[in-house]
């Protein structure tokens, strides 16, 4: 593979770093610095913006969609919508927030509403509210699981600690400032719900290969294992080929789904080796791990997840410069 310059999707000016060992302390003055790792995704937003962004709230096209997802803050500010422009949905989000508050004032929690063919399913994860409006025939639990995945996708970018502190300090904070450029991953995830039943089953799809080939790939990764690395993963065509992990640190399927969605949701990672912070909520929702991502061909990537934010060149040298890419191919 031709030599490429790495893409650092990280905040190098933050000396404290993001790790699973330390919880990040956030104050109002540091809100802008939180968004720096996310700013690397701005080019993704420009390249792969939602095709449905021009749909209007009262348009025939918008109303004909069988399933809608909405994310809003507990103050009623829109964060993201699957179809259309969330900035045009302020009045609708205000109504949703009022309905939720009506039940909260009675010390109750709204979970769903059935109205004809439509199901309105709610998931309240303070400080964010998630709503699905569907007429697909899926059960309430299935739709709520999908909302949980959307919540995990946001945590993978911000961590639960950061998200909570932001809204503790600014109740009316517009979260779109920090999520700018990462909406493509929410879009991609919401599309997968209809096409990939492994989400419903909390399962993973593995690439079908001979056992001897899978064992050989695992052996190559074992030989190139780097200090402070937690996981080494080979992914091809959106499916798992092999996974190396410590005995006491398994990876939850939902965390792997988020990782695969990040790889498949954008072509940006195909252009160069990348080093990016990544929160795996089921592993630890309070801090970041760091992922080395390298595509060795159009559909196949190697991902090494480490606890050390300065581990990029060691991983690149020990794992890949010895010719492991060619061996796996």
UniProtKB/TrEMBL annotation:
Domain FUZ/MON1/HPS1 first Longin: residue ranges: 67-189
GO biological process: autophagy; protein targeting to vacuole; vesicle-mediated transport
Protein name: Vacuolar fusion protein MON1
GO CC terms in record: fungal-type vacuole membrane; Mon1-Ccz1 complex; multivesicular body membrane
Record domain FUZ/MON1/HPS1 second Longin: where: 227-315
Family: Belongs to the MON1/SAND family.
Predominant subcellular localization, coarse grouping: membrane
Lipid biosynthesis recorded as keyword: no
Keywords noted in UniProt: Autophagy, Endosome, Membrane, Protein transport, Transport, Vacuole
